[in-house]
Amino acid sequence: MKNYIILLAILLGITSGMMAQGIRFEHGDWAQVKAKAKAAEKIIFIDFYTTWCGPCKNLSNNVFPQKQVGDFYNAHFISYKVDAEKGEGRELAKKFGVKAYPTLVFANANGEFVHQAVGGMDATALISLGKAALDPEQQLSHVMNKDEDQITDIPAYLRQLSESRLAYEDKYETYITSLKRKELFTQATFDLMVELGGREAAGFTFDVIFNNKKAFARAIGEEPVDNYFFNKYLTKAFKVAYHGGAIETVYDEIKQKGFDFADKIQKTYQLTKYISDGNYEVFISEAPGYIQKYAKNNLELKYRWVFMVAVHSVYQSPELKAYVHQLADELIAQNYKVAEVNAYLGQSYAMTGDYQTALKYYQKAADYAQENNIDGEYLKYAKTLEKKIAVMEKGDYSIHISGLDEYNGMCIKLSYESPDEIGEMVEAGDVLIKEGQCTLTGHVSTPVNAWWGLYDDEVYQYKGGGVILEPGEYLATIKGNDMTVENSVYNFFIYQAVKNDPAFSAAKEKLDTWSAKERDLKIPEVKKDYLELIGAVNNAKKDYYINTYRTALDPIVKVMAFYVGGLWVDEGADGEIAKLKAQLGEHYLLKTIMYHKEQSVEAEAMLATVGVGQQIKPFVAKDLSGQAFELEKVLKENKYVLVEFWASWCGPCRAAIPHLKEVYNKYHQQGFEIVSFSLDNKESLWRKASEEEGIPWINTSDLLAFKSPIAKMYGVSGVPYSLLVDQNGVIITSQYGTNYLEEKLKELIK
């Protein structure tokens, strides 16, 4: 239970105040770190992490940066971060026996083990861990080397080694073997063996209990002994099935050993399969019969293999939710694991973003635990949820971005589609970068998908991308076109986790390697290779969003993956939108998706009227001086006219202008003209971009952006978009981009 609650705390990611001056980690190699520790006469603190480890990220993002943690660790330790799966980290992890992450190891200046702990923790626990590492009596190296006559409580000693992920197996086997029969066949010894004996249906512990199962049954009862063997073989069945083996071999082994629960294991495994395969109706229909036959008098079986199997899928269907609550009511009525049942219900709601309902159940768990003196952190996580709810209800966000020294004097702009006025864009203002940092602040009523861009005096710097604005206070960094927002649930799932997706990262690495060499994209074969690599990257990204949409528990994560991943344009999208509506109601992103779908239908209908061979639609628009230009008149005065839709904020549009100018200068005297139409909504931005680019052709706009009737008349849904037209107004080309232009004019103007 504790592991699941810790996971919840990590996902909630409460950040109290902006953090700075945390632990200073060394950047040299292991030899340099040891030398520095020797010179400073300090112990070395090592954070063994992996890139995919959630608790590792929580420590790095939320605990290590805290001032009180930094003050303590910087004063007493030389600190070192090690990726346990890369480079030198692999050997170091092997040296210190690291098998789980994060593992926090303390070593002396000679590189010898002193102390360690495994798993995530808060600032208070981390400081306590450091104090233990400094105390010779508490150091695990001291505990490990104790003589037998110094150990007064061997079971407690073995548990301490196990909890610290230190080797205990040899000492454990020696201890069990040394016990007399009256000491061996007790509840305390049996509990120790179950706890420390491993998960396999084989090995030392399994053999001891199997060879003495009647004696153990007489001492502690048949049910716990039967449950021990049942759980071991059930684990084995799952393991065999997971690795693609024949699960029937497990059933055969069970029968050969003389056990009669092969059928029960088969049915238990099948119940879990119903849930994992999404067959919720079958699960609901089969579970009562399973309980009646196998778990009527075995509440642990009902709790673990019916209730717990289904509780985290309650959001999938109203019927399943009702059945899970029925199971919970039955377990609570029988006073069985009341705190755990309520906490699991709370977690299931928290993971779907329903924090108010989650808090109700966590509070029930906390109240019961307090009334019955049950250990657990239920109250702590109820308080965490209360803080989360308060942050969400307030709606204020603050993203502090650092590491921007090369961009001092520039600014970051934010914009997003309004949750209140569907189809309208909200501009969140400009934030100036000073001393390598800036802070984006604002208020949102719900997490929103936004776009950020880096500008130098209103000039877009071709750096920008997506970011989720969600209530709370966050740290962030920018690298290239990626803004990494630490400890943000929605940014992690929508914009950050994709970068660690194996298929995407492999495709991206191939593209980056290919792009690192100079290549001429005008060569057809080269362009073909490039487009294939781009396609592989885009396909991998699309697959990531599809998987996230299918597996995410939080419906807001689902709808964001659906939207950002462009899944709403796929075949069958309407059915998925209906499912999302059932979960989210009239969520703004669903309204936005429907708005774009309607706009897309209109645009496609209009595009069909401006295809190649059709007659251009005339319009009149004004330039920056206020002079009106009639397209029909321009057509009569020139052999060929390019009608080009662009915008000041459009990177590809701006990047294409230098080449367009070359083509214009080359062919203008031969009867070629360009009529630009800007989809800006501010004259200042349009004017500034036009002046910076030195646009020499007819340059018009109505400053209505995509709501312009002229843009709608041509079905423009993105820029750059252009149409090449002859003197009679017949459309020769109609497509996004202008790369084709020079070759086409060579063909037309001879």
Descriptive account of the structure:
With 750 residues, the protein is α+β, with helices and mostly antiparallel strands. Helices cover 53% and strands 17% of the residues. A seven-stranded mixed sheet has the order 15-14-18-17-16-19-20. Strand 17, helix 31 and strand 18 form a beta-alpha-beta unit. The longest helix is centred in the C-terminal third of the chain and has 28 residues. The protein is elongated, with a radius of gyration of 33 Å. The N and C termini lie far apart (78 Å).
Task: Give a concise summary.
Helices cover 53% and strands 17% of the residues. With 750 residues, it is α+β, with helices and mostly antiparallel strands. The longest helix is centred in the C-terminal third of the chain and has 28 residues, at 524-551.
Describe this protein with a few key phrases.
750 residues; alpha+beta; seven-stranded mixed β-sheet; five-stranded mixed β-sheet; 33 helices; 20 strands; 53% helix; elongated; disordered N terminus
What topology does this entry show?
Elements: H1 2-12, E1 25-26, H2 30-40, E2 43-49, H3 54-63, H4 67-76, E3 77-83, H5 88-95, E4 103-107, E5 113-118, H6 123-134, H7 140-144, H8 154-163, H9 169-178, H10 181-184, H11 187-196, H12 204-211, H13 213-220, H14 222-242, H15 248-256, H16 262-276, H17 280-295, H18 299-311, H19 318-333, H20 338-350, H21 355-371, H22 378-394, E6 396-402, E7 411-417, E8 425-432, E9 438-443, E10 448-456, E11 459-469, E12 472-479, E13 482-485, H23 489-496, H24 502-515, H25 524-551, H26 555-564, H27 573-584, H28 588-607, E14 620-623, E15 628-630, H29 631-637, E16 640-646, H30 651-667, E17 672-678, H31 683-693, E18 698-701, H32 709-713, E19 721-726, E20 731-736, H33 741-748
Parallel strand pairs: 1-3, 2-3, 6-12, 16-17, 17-18
Antiparallel strand pairs: 2-4, 4-5, 6-9, 7-8, 7-10, 10-11, 12-13, 14-15, 14-18, 16-19, 19-20
Helix pairs in contact: 1-20, 4-6, 13-14, 14-16, 15-16, 16-17, 16-18, 17-18, 18-19, 19-20, 20-21, 21-22, 24-25, 25-26
